[in-house]
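Let us work through a complete example step by step.
Step 1: write down the sequence.
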Amino acid sequence: MNILVIGSGGREHALAWQCAKDENVENIYVAPGNAGTALELKCQNVVLASTDANDHSAVIEFCQNNAIDMVIVGPEAPLVTGIVDACREAGIKAWGPTAYCAQLEGSKTFAKEFMEKNNIPTAAYQGFTDATAAKAYIDEQGAPIVIKADGLAAGKGVIVAETIEQAHEAIDDMLADNKFGDAGSRVVIEQFLQGEEASFICMIDGDNILPMATSQDHKRAFEGDTGPNTGGMGAYSPAPVVTQEVHDKVMKQVIQPVVDAMKDAGHPYTGFLYAGLMIDQSGDPYVIEFNCRFGDPETQPILMRLKSSMVNLVAQGLEGQLPNEAKWDTRPALGIVVASKGYPETSSKGDLIAGLPELNTEDDNTVKVFHAGTAFSNSDEAAAKKEVLTNGGRVLCVTALADTISDAQQAALAVTGAISFDGAQYRRDIGHHAITRENA
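Step 2: predict the structure and record it as C-alpha cells.
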C-alpha cells in the first residue's frame, strides 16, 4: 500500500510515523514533509509540481503516477480550498472533509452561524468589517473579550484581550492594518468563556463517529498560561476534565449535531473533526472553535497512545464503515513543543539543532521527537552528517508515554533539556491541570 500525507508539521510527522507501523504499508510519501519525516522508516519527502494549496492538479498527478492508495490531508488550507473534492472527482481516495464542510474552520462566521442554527453551545458573538462599529461593540461588552480573524491565520488569529485597550489594538491590527491579510478583513468578537479547555477530536465517515482519545492543548506562549496565543505549545492525553458525563454531552450536543446537519445539507462530513471546547464548572461544554483536521500538537500525544492501525481506520472511514471505538494504550502521553526565537510573533530559520535523539529506535515507543519546523542543511558536508536546522515557528514536539502525567512530563522534559538551538523556547508546565488533579 502506498500513502500520500500532505503537510510539513508535527501532525504530519506523527501521522506518517503511525501509518508506517502498519505491515501492509510499503511507501509513505510526505509532501513536502520535514527533516523528521525524511528519516522515518518507509517514508520519503516529495516536492510536488506546485506547492500552491489551490493547485490540486499537482496532487492528483503525483497520486496517479505513484499508485497512491490513499491520501491523508494534514493541514487546513488545502482542505478549505477543496483538495478532497478534487481527489474524489479524479477517483482518488482522500481522507478529509469537502470544501463545504471545511468552512467550519475556514470561516469563523460560517461556524458561528452554523452553531447558532443547529443549537450547538458556543459563546455569544457579533461579526464586523468596520473598525469603528467593532470598537463600539467592545466598549459596550467590556473586557476580557475574544477577537478572532474570520479566516485562516495559521492558528494565530485569536486574541484574548484582557483590557478594552488590547481589544481596540487587535481590531486595528486586523481591520485597519491588515495584519492577517484577507483572513482578518472580517472579525468575530466573542464573549470570554470561563472554565477549562479540552480538545475533542473525532473521525467521521458521513454517518459513523469514532471519538479519538481526549486531549488538552496549551495555547498560551508562556508558563502559567500567560502570554500571547500560539498554535499550541504542548498537549497531553487523556484530558481528565472530559469525564464520561462530559464526553456524553459533547457527543450529543456538539458532534452528532454537526454530522446530522451536514448530512441534511447534502454535504456529509468525512475526515477528522476537532472541537476546541471550554468546559464550565457545571461540566457543560461550549465550542470555542471547530477545526476540520487533526489538531497540532494534540495529534502527537494522541497517536503515541493509539494501538489500532491508523491505516485501517482511515480505510474503514473511506468505505463508510468506521468502528465506534479504537484501541488505546491506557497510559497517558504528553508532548512539549520547542519553538524558535521570537515565536509566535516571528520565527527563526537556519539555526543548527543539537542534541536530537536518533529516530527509529526502541525508545520511539515511549519517547518520540516529532519534527515540525525543521529542514536539512543545504551544504554537502552538513547534509552528509544529516545536520538539522530550524525552519519555522514550532520546531519540535517532544512526546513521552508513561504511567502518569507527571512521569510523562518529566520524561519529555529530560529529552527536551538535551536539545538546543539559538533562541529555543518551551514551557515546563505542560499538563499542569492534570498533574494538579494527580497530586490532589
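Step 3: interpret the result. The two ends are 48 Å apart (CA to CA).
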